[in-house]
């Protein structure tokens, strides 16, 4: 058993972690309506977009595992495999996604201020760009994982981390 063969477990861990945020999507449907004050919409967009980032940073520094990773029997460690990630490492590990997320939120907020109200169509282009970026980034990560012995994805190199099986 190769402790670095974690690709499938990572995939399912990510799906599990994403499902934890379904309540946020339901709140989006309630809060992001055209009759809500623009200030509430902007505050909610900022909060909701920071939740997944905070979730990953917290759990990767606390015990190396999100709830999905724990369920799938994998852990994120420093590349030395002797300790959990520092906050800096966890931040660097997610930095590409964080930067794109911040950029998207920034563009959405500017757009909302420029039109003066919220409508789903006013930000749909930005959400589409985020979806495209996520898909492209996924392919880059998979290709990178397949090219090295420890199955480190690009974000693992950024955060000097490695994902291993712990069972």
From TrEMBL:
> Main localization of the protein?
membrane
**Where does the chain cross the membrane?**
12-32, 38-59, 96-114, 126-146
Look up the domain of life of the source.
Bacteria
Q: Where in the cell is it found?
A: Cell membrane
Keywords, sorted A to Z:
Cell membrane, Membrane, Transmembrane, Transmembrane helix
Q: Which residues form the RDD domain?
A: 9-158
Q: Name one Pfam family in it.
A: RDD
Answer whether the UniProt record assigns the keyword Signal to this protein. Answer: no
Topology with regard to the membrane?
Answer: Multi-pass membrane protein
Q: Does the keyword Transmembrane apply?
A: yes
Write the protein's name.
RDD family protein
Species for this entry: Lacihabitans lacunae
